[in-house]
Amino acid sequence: MPSGTRATPSIAQVGEFAFLSRLLPSLPHTPGTLIGPGQDCAVIRGLTRELLLTVDALVDGVHYRPGWLAPRHIGRKSFLVNVSDIAAMGGRPRFCVVSLGVPRAYPARQLAAVERGIVAAASSCGTAVVGGNLTRAQALFVSIALLADAPRRRVTRQGARPGDRIYVTGTLGDAALAVRALSARRQPPSGARRRFAEPPLRLRAGQYLVEAGIVSAMIDVSDGLLQDLGHVCTQSRVGARVDASRIPVSATYRRALDADVALALSGGEDYELLCTVPERNVPKLERSAATLGCPITCIGEVVRGHSVRVRNADGRLRRGGATGYDHFRSPQG
Amino acid sequence: MPSGTRATPSIAQVGEFAFLSRLLPSLPHTPGTLIGPGQDCAVIRGLTRELLLTVDALVDGVHYRPGWLAPRHIGRKSFLVNVSDIAAMGGRPRFCVVSLGVPRAYPARQLAAVERGIVAAASSCGTAVVGGNLTRAQALFVSIALLADAPRRRVTRQGARPGDRIYVTGTLGDAALAVRALSARRQPPSGARRRFAEPPLRLRAGQYLVEAGIVSAMIDVSDGLLQDLGHVCTQSRVGARVDASRIPVSATYRRALDADVALALSGGEDYELLCTVPERNVPKLERSAATLGCPITCIGEVVRGHSVRVRNADGRLRRGGATGYDHFRSPQG
Question: Which of B88, B101, B154 lies closest to A59 in CB terms?
Fold first, then answer.
């Protein structure tokens, strides 16, 4: 091999514009994209009058470490964590723009895989990637801003009332289980690793729970159940009581940790939906399990007060507090 | 002072949620913001049917080095580089979301200044900051996605035709002059430094040039005039001839470099508007100087072919080529 070349050229060797000129023609357009990437702005139309807008980022060395995620999964996950926010407000994602920071030595082929992961995940959610920005950075970051059609009803973190039941979709704790193993350089159970790499898609559930008027408040569980429930309580000016024995965990989780749900309560990165449901809506919710496309489990109830308490197996209540993930205070992740 | 504390606490000492809980109430809302920051998504309305969407990022160590920009200017500039893209398509910026990556040791007070810089710049452009994301990162990055009302006419990089005149707003080269001095650890002329810190606002000019139907193609000059003109030529399938003697430069630039416009031609970070104007629209353009809010100068013309050529003072034409900024190939910046 001649000196100065490599089997896998870096993004610096390929160059910003050459990379983009290969990438852009491969992007699928969706109806409503009048002008896609390659101009100063995208031009879009066909949205509802009310819109949802959100942004989230994945950073190398912060959200994952070398070897934890394949490039395609980095792309896929960066998109899906945004979708999770849209799902929590019952929206339909439509258009996104992607901001990439890339180290000079990053292999161009891997960057293309990151992009393909974003585009494939976006396409599977009916979303067009209509623009982006590519800049150099010390460590890879992928920041995606996502625009969605708003539902006709508005659900936030603020509507929970004492007496409402607290529900959560899917299962909790697997992603945190994977992170704990990976941080200790152990191989995580494959189910947990898959869950860390690929957040669940709760769009249909979120849309139904909002449009059918079932939920009084909703949030996506990204920083740990107790912390995100704490946000709902603070913003709704209520307290909550959670039953540890009812926390839904996967078979993988149970094999690894048996009945210890501490990690499921505070681990983070679940990207499930946490919602509060007035008692009168509970029968309707229980009947609509098939429509949601995922399990949904009652884990407790909203109470007067302002604290989140967990009832353990021994029947004792303990303060749940804000024990989840803080990007600057939490040691790992 | 007790050990373990500092005069200026870092973002890690303050914590993500404490920082945000102080910041969010200070954000001004604009009409159309139904739900601002603090929920999973913002809810917005009151936009036109066609929208513009763009994203751009500023990265510490890439777009600037320590001491080059005050925190407030980092915020301000991150917003204004996005506005420049909106201006180039004649839009009216309305809503933005901010994605921040912040090192653990970054002083919380400086981060608050970055935020204030963003919010002040946004407010001055009639734009609401409706959401954001705060994550840890090795080096500070600020990525902003900006949503704008689209104008009734659509202008892109694709409409230039042979015979069109080429115009540029304001002056070129000052930001590059500042970067060159700062990179060599010299003090740049104050005018140049100000220009690097504060991109010009060309919203009114962009809106008028598009809405009045004056321009056939437009782009913002961010990567250097010749390179950005090259994008217009490639996408319009034309060539261009630029007259070096007509490149508009500031008094600061002329004092520093006299008649040498090489840096003004390829330096980058000008954030001026470059447009092509069919000859029949030239009288209208010349009459509307006052409406634009900035000078606009004819620097050459669109020709058949596909190359960008520069006529130097000696009358000789040389190939302009793509000599501007590539994020991965250019050594500085």
Answer: B101
